[in-house]
Structures are given as C-alpha cells and as structure tokens.
Here is the input.
Amino acid sequence: MNDPDWLQWAREMQAIAQIGLEYTEGPYDRERYHTLRALAVRAMAAHAAANPERIAALFEGETGYATPKVDVRGAAFRDGRILLVREAADEGRWTLPGGWADVNLTPAENVVREMVEESGFIVRVRKLAAVWDRSRHGHTPQPFHAYKLFFLCDITGGAPATSHETSEVAFFGPDEIPEDLSHDRVRPAQIRRMFEHYQRPDLPTDFD
Here is the structure.
C-alpha cells in the first residue's frame, strides 16, 4: 500500500525546489524554484484539506539537500508479550515506543533513549529487525518522506513509567494487539512481524 499519487508528487516537487534553492546561483532559477515550492504547497493543501500557511512554513523550514527523515521504534518483550505505550496525544492510541531520530546519536542510541523516556524501561538493542519505507506500509499520509527503523530490544532494567508523551505502559500478547493503534506510528502487521522476529532470531532484517 503506497501513499496517494498526489502526495508523492507534492513531496517530490518540494524536494526538487528545496535542492534547487540550496544550490542554484541564478536569480531566475531561484524564482522558478520558489514557484515550484508554492505549487507543492497548493497541491498538498488542496488534497489534504490543510492550512496552506502551515504547509508553506513546514516546507520553508527545510533547507539543504532533501533526504528522508528517520523514525526509530523499539520492540521489547517480557514473557512473550510485547511492550506498547499509549500516546498522551493522538487520541491516546497505542504504539511501539519511539520517535524521530536525534542528531549526534546512533540509531541504536536513539531507540534506547526513546524506550526509557516513553516507557521507563532500560533496554539493550539486540537486532535491527526492519528498515521500512513509511509511505509503503499504510501509515497515515504525512508531508515528508521517512524511513522507519525497527529494533528488537532486551529489557535490562527500569520499571513501567509514563512521561509527558505517554499515559500508559503495558505488555500485549500476539492475540491482544489493541485495535486503537496509532497508525501514524505503527501498523498491526509491523507489530506481528516483531513477534516473528522475537520468536525466530535467525530471521534476516526486513527492508523496503
């Protein structure tokens, strides 16, 4: 399942405009790239019923060469059940702990940080289970392209604890996956795949 064509086209126009504005030296080319960015804003606002000013501000905040963003998620288990957290935002939906990767941290360091901040548990990363293109897995459409990195983690300490980002911490069996998942962050099929990686440590890393 891919993102709709209009979203892919708008993102590509934005990326071309962003790269062009970073490297072009000609005033006429800069004007053309600004026009292309404005078209991307109009296309996204029209199809997403979103505020054009907000989208324009998002796009204008992106500079340099356009690349996908990186989201990290941690899958930790206890007694065969997977750790999930309930978001304080997003209508209180459940998800795997995680979020956008921060600079100056490795992918593994990022997921360790997210796990303790959102769940209270200290973990050690065991395996990179999956690198998935966010736009091809049925997530809620978003303005920017992103890759999602899923790590299998072992709990080494800590205790359940909520934060300003989470309101509940719990473990779920393979037949207990909540229906009210945050599809912006994780899909049921991805959680089921984490169970498979947990049960079969020899599975290779999934990608795309």
